[in-house]
């Protein structure tokens, strides 16, 4: 996939902008504060309907404006597609795809393979397990929507069981009332565990390959799924076994809402022991591995958006990175210094003060 043009109004620092995006490697170059990240964010928002940077989306509307619009023309394997998104904070987004209304933002995720690296996403490597679970479940949703639906179903049933645990603790329900809930929760949970296990198995090879190609030393097993309850073990049995403690604490203490996925280089858990550079590399390796899997499943490489990815790399690692992204239909890379794109054959867009020039 690639983006062909993006037109935006009142998005971050852009009052009105129209950008033609060439295929291949595209450098977005400009000084700090010029609007490079905002351009990456606008392309992402224009294709997928949400910002990769913030969950307080009202922030993306230009100061003083009431609503924003982004229109993106993309080329996907099925042909050209136009996506239009209008957003006024507090209201549902208005989305059309080739002129037809699309009510669900989530559906865009399945249609448009767009992957993004931003330094904010380092939290994925550095942060709490919940961030990694959310990331892997989103990857699942994009690759295999049916098994991925287990994640939402599990979350719903989990909150219902927790609610019931509180009632039992308060003496307003009998412990036996938990029987059907344990079974329902276990059923969705086991599907989710199986889907995550399968995803990690499929990602492990590409992740190791990408880490190595980026100059890392992946060792045996760089991606390690750590399920709270092993695949194949009965989650229902685990729930029944802990029922007494769960009632006391009024929370469910076993299940995939407590899973983690660890990222390793050799025998080092990168979350705890990785240098900043190694953590960035792991994030990039993970995104490229996701790209490999997506390419395989869809027969088309995704669009890559890479914000500030070259900055802290030495010359050799920068070369490896540019080599790694060279095989994509389009990779849009921001940098303050055009020299960071080295000898790579790149088209350059220059950004300053909310304007973009070819
Ligand atoms: N909602 C907004 N309205 C107007 N300007 C904004 C908004 N959000 C951020 N900005 C400004 O946009 C400018 C460009 O930011 P950014 O794209 O992050 O720069 P950079 O080129 O360093 O990546 C900054 O000056 C920032 O303060
Ligand atoms: Mg930036």
Structure explained in plain terms:
This protein is an alpha/beta fold and 358 residues long. The protein is built from eleven helices and 15 strands. It has a six-stranded antiparallel β-sheet with strand order 2-1-4-5-6-7, with helices on one face. A six-stranded mixed β-sheet has the order 8-12-13-3-14-15, with helices on both faces. A three-stranded antiparallel β-sheet has the order 9-10-11. Helix 5 crosses helix 6. The longest helix has 36 residues, at 178-213. 42% of the residues are buried. The chain binds adenosine-5'-diphosphate (ADP) and magnesium ion. Residues 36-37, 307-308 line the site of magnesium ion (MG).
Could you provide a short overview of the structure?
The chain is of the alpha/beta class and 358 residues long.
* Global outline: globular
Q: Helix proportion of residues, in percent?
A: 40-55%
The structure class reads alpha/beta
Number of helical regions: 11
Largest sheet: 6 strands, antiparallel
| Oligomeric state, counting identical vs distinct chains | single chain
In round numbers, the mean pLDDT is 95
Strand arrangement across the biggest beta sheet: 2-1-4-5-6-7
Gyration radius, in Å: 22 Å
Low-confidence stretches: none
